[in-house]
Design brief:
two-stranded antiparallel sheet; 274 residues; 10 helices; nine-stranded mixed beta sheet; Spore Coat Polysaccharide Biosynthesis Protein SpsA, Chain A; 13 strands; alpha/beta; single chain
Length: 274
């Protein structure tokens, strides 16, 4: 059984790149074919043995809570029809997982969002999943890969992938030494560097396993880039103590925070399901 029992889903962002559709709808509810991004994320967490799903939301995000709930009127309407099966996976998640919610009162960066979820997480190691990083794998999901590594190393672990030079300035970039194929001991981490100043091209994506001391570190972390509290800066503090690993995950990621990545993910899923 996985030592990671809770997953935090930061979901308070505005999704401005998808306006006007995200004016009244959370970007996490954008569909990949007929299933919202957030459900794919919860399913990935559940496959990793995680049962407690904790959401950091904000104003206008009630659709997330409603999705992971029972809709008596809808279910009564489709009972006995062929469409009833379309809700089977959602029903299973609601039945087998526990969902909790808190609000991030102001959007001050991913580090602040994670810190806002402390009351839902407590003092145990936990996963973090950003739903707009849509990942597909042939075997274990990305969180399951990280959870397996955590059981061996007992430290914070981030998922990374190689990105082209033109995209380096959009990510947190790690520096470190490769301990075994695909596994790095992180020595430094830079948030959205200029490609010429970057320590490499291994970019952190929206999958983490974090140890609970990250909360105290975040409390002491001053605002960084864009006057936001960056998880990258907190992880850098952990890395100085040799306590952060990076894993070049097995699988493929689509950046569904961008329209191009969102369309590519839909085309990929549709072509593989058709």
């Amino acid at each position: 059984m996985s030592a990671i029992r809770k997953c935090l889903f930061p979901a308070a962002g505005y999704g401005t790149r998808f306006l006007p559709v995200t004016k009244a709808m959370p970007k996490e509810m954008l569909p990949i074919v007929n299933k919202p991004l957030i459900q794919y994320g919860v399913e990935e967490a559940a496959r990793a043995g995680i049962t407690d799903m904790a959401f950091v939301t904000g104003r206008g995000k009630r659709a997330l809570e409603d999705h992971f709930d029972i809709s008596y009127e809808l279910e009564r309407e489709i009972a006995g029809s062929e469409r009833e099966s379309l809700l089977a996976e959602t029903r299973r998640l609601v039945r087998e997982c526990h969902f909790s919610y808190t609000r991030q009162l102001e959007v001050r960066g991913l580090g602040h969002a994670i810190l806002s979820g402390e009351t839902l997480i407590g003092d145990k190691p936990f996963a973090v999943l950003l739903a707009d990083d849509f990942c597909v794998t042939e075997d274990a999901g990305v969180l399951a890969q990280l959870a397996e590594l955590y059981s061996e190393h007992n430290c914070s672990i981030v998922a990374v992938e190689e990105v082209p030079p033109a995209e380096i300035s959009s990510y947190g970039i790690i520096d470190g030494e490769e301990r075994s194929p695909g596994l790095y001991r992180v020595t430094d981490m830079v948030e959205k560097p200029d490609p010429a100043d970057a320590p490499g091209n291994l970019a952190v994506i929206g999958r983490y396993v974090l140890t609970p001391d990250i909360f105290d570190i975040l409390r002491r972390t001053p605002p960084g880039r864009n006057s936001e509290i960056q998880i990258t800066d907190a992880l850098k503090t952990q890395a100085r103590k040799g306590r952060v690993l990076a894993w070049r995950f097995r699988g493929r990621r689509f950046d569904c925070g961008s329209i191009a990545g969102f369309m590519a993910a839909n085309n990929f899923v549709w072509s593989n399901e058709a």
